[in-house]
Amino acid sequence: MLFMNIYKILEEAIRSDSIELKEKLTQQCFEYCSQNSFISSNGFSPLLFDKPSYFNRCEIVEPKALKTRKDFDTKEGLATLVHAIAHIEYSAIDLALDAVYRFPEMPMAYKIDWLEVAQDEIRHYKMLDGLLEELGFTYGDFPVHCGLFDASIETAKDSLDRMAIIPRYYEASGLDVNPQIIKKLDNKRKLPMVKKLIDALNIIYEEEISHVHKGDRWFKYLCDERDLEYVTYFKILDKYKLLSKKRPHVNVDARQKAGFSCQELKKLGNVECF
After folding, report:
1. Contacts of 51 (CB under 8 A, 6+ apart)
2. Which of 37, 75, 113, 237 suits 243 as a labelling partner, its CA being 20 to 30 A distant?
3. pLDDT-based confidence at residue 41 (cuts at 50, 70, 90)
4. The three-state (H, E, C) secondary structure of 16-44, written as one string
């Protein structure tokens, strides 16, 4: 393939609020990286974005200002839940692209991994956006918070912190929460839209295990490279004030598949594992 400045393309993809453009540019970068063993980053300096790409599409509020989603019997009630999950998936697209954009020193295998994750997240978002449309709503109809964007800014200077906090903390937390959401929805499974949502959540759940596993792999790669023990993970969580209490639900099976050790899981929550 002809020379392509993937960092300029990634910047455009991260800034854009068009899912179609994000998808097109992500595919271009993936194909280019898959066919080249080295990408020059001479003169490249990543920007620190001052606002998320959904800034003009969504009303951004503090997390405590968001309404608790309990009523799934109405279209609007179910749509608020779908919208919240769609927002996480949308945010995850930019996070995966930013993982490639921001750390050009990382190996090509790392770039390909996170471009693959971005492709998955785009597909997840489109599934949920389709459900929103069937319910009579669209992305941006409900307020959102920008916690994941804030976390990406906070971890922008260190790839080790980024791998620990985004995939190994926030995305791994999704593995804990996803089955809890499905459990709450299960008694309404006979409703067609609820069944579609559960089906989508099951797909997302299985693929998110792979995403967390990729984060685990590169976290450990960076620890090995810097001659650090893997327990550094908890020091990083503590630095970001994310280790204040035990998690109420720790998905032992999914987290072990994603690379977490039993020792780590016991420290995260009151669980039994082997």
Report:
1. 149
2. 113
3. confident
4. CCCHHHHHHHHHHHHHHHHCCCCCCCCCC
The letter for the amino acid at 195 is K
Question: 90 near 125, Cβ under 8 Å?
Answer: yes
| In contact, 164 and 240? CB cutoff 8 Å | no
Single out the residue of 200, 166, 161, 201 nearest to residue 180, CA to CA. 201
CB 273, CB 262: distance < 8 Å: yes
Q: Are 162 and 102 in contact (CB under 8 A)?
A: yes
Compute the distance between CA of residue 261 and CA of residue 239 in angstroms, rounded to an integer. 21
Q: How far is CA 115 from CA 37, 133, 149, in A?
A: 15, 27, 18
> pTM for this one?
0.95
pLDDT classification of 66: cutoffs 50, 70, 90: confident
Dump the DSSP string for the chain: -----HHHHHHHHHH---HHHHHHHHHHHHHHHHT-S----TT------SS-TTTTTS-B--GGGSPP----SSHHHHHHHHHHHHHHHHHHHHHHHHHHHH-TTS-HHHHHHHHHHHHHHHHHHHHHHHHHHHTT--TTSS-B--HHHHHHHHTTT-HHHHHHHIIIIIIHHHHHHHHHHHHHHGGGTTSHHHHHHHHHHHHHHHHHHHHHHHHHHHHHHHHHHTT--TTHHHHHHHHTT--SS--S---HHHHHHTT--HHHHHHHSS----
- Cα gap 84→66, rounded to integer Å: 10
**Pair of tokens at residue 36:** 């080249």
Contact 171, 92 (CB under 8 A): yes
